[in-house]
Design a protein that fits this description.
heterodimer, A: alpha+beta, Alpha-D-Glucose-1,6-Bisphosphate, Chain A, domain 4, eight-stranded antiparallel β-sheet, 30% helix, B: mainly alpha, Arc Repressor Mutant, subunit A, 2 domains, three-stranded antiparallel β-sheet, 12% strand
Chain lengths: 159, 121
């Protein structure tokens, strides 16, 4: 299982859920640090291979505490924010995503075994429609400009 | 992701490069229609319209369904294409994040083992 866990592809596991898992080499408490200390979190949440950067990162990691992330992408910025619902170091972190009307709840669990940590990132949307909408709107952000224009054209037909 | 989306784009743009096919999409945006309806609207033969609809179908811009002797056309499963592309992006994002998380955690581990080392991050 450990070998397959390491190579499991992030996936839509149901109408309302996304799941990403990975085995990280290292103890859970260090993985926890990387999720909860802003200066560490900011170094991997916007991967270097992606055309986005994290221009602001504020994490108040306690139950009821808020976070705020500002991404930069080709001259424009997008802000993401929410609240932490559960904070159980170094095993479980749950937060809301409040920038949309129907944002998902993200649950991160860390399970340590033999110096390795299985990380699962689970997103649960309130409805199938909410995840479908995220996919429909999110795809244009990551796709080439032409595809965004095409999508706009199609959307204008459906309107 | 790039390969997928560019082949999808090629098919989509090829389909949209024709004025009649763009007109068919606009028409289907208002309501579903049979091939016969479309042929009449655009003053074409059934065979000609079938070819146009087939191109739109291949680009996933239109789906058709035959009920009895009537083939009904409607705007297609763009969402399926969107979902595939989005999930590819989501996978790449998380794989890249995990790669960097892995590096950071390993660096933290090394730092702990050598508290007096020169690992100033």
């Amino acid at each position: 299982m450990a070998a397959t866990a390491n190579s499991a592809e992030p996936e839509r596991i149901s109408d309302c859920e996304l799941l990403a898992t990975r085995t990280i080499i290292g103890p859970a408490r260090l993985v926890w640090e990387a999720w909860t200390k802003a200066e560490l979190f900011g170094r991997w949440w916007a991967p270097k291979s992606f055309p986005i950067s994290l221009v602001a990162c504020e994490l108040d990691v306690r139950v009821g505490g808020g976070y705020r992330l500002v991404f930069g992408h080709e001259g424009s910025t997008a802000e993401f924010f929410g609240r932490y619902l559960e904070v159980t170091p170094p095993a479980r972190l749950v937060w809301t995503n409040d920038e949309g009307e129907s944002g998902q709840v993200t649950t991160v669990t860390l399970t340590e075994s033999d110096g390795q940590t299985l990380v699962t990132v689970h997103d649960r949307y309130p409805s199938k429609q909410a995840l479908d909408d995220e996919i429909a709107s999110g795809s244009t952000g990551a796709m080439p400009e032409q595809l965004a224009q095409l999508d706009e054209f199609i959307a204008s037909l459906e309107a | 992701m790039v390969q997928y989306s560019s082949s999808g784009l090629d098919a989509s743009f090829a389909a949209l490069s024709d004025a009649t096919r763009r007109g068919v999409l606009v028409r289907l945006g208002r309501a579903d229609a049979s091939i016969t309806d479309l042929a009449q609207t655009f003053h074409m033969t059934l065979t000609g319209m079938r070819k146009h609809v087939s191109v739109l179908e291949q680009a996933q811009l239109v789906t058709t369904e035959k009920v009895g002797r009537v083939r009904t056309c409607r705007l297609g499963p763009r969402r399926l294409a969107d979902e595939t592309a989005w999930l590819d992006w989501y996978r790449e994002l998380w794989n890249a994040r995990f790669d960097e998380l892995d590096r950071i955690v390993q660096a933290l581990g090394v730092k702990e083992e050598q508290p007096y080392g020169r690992n100033s991050e």
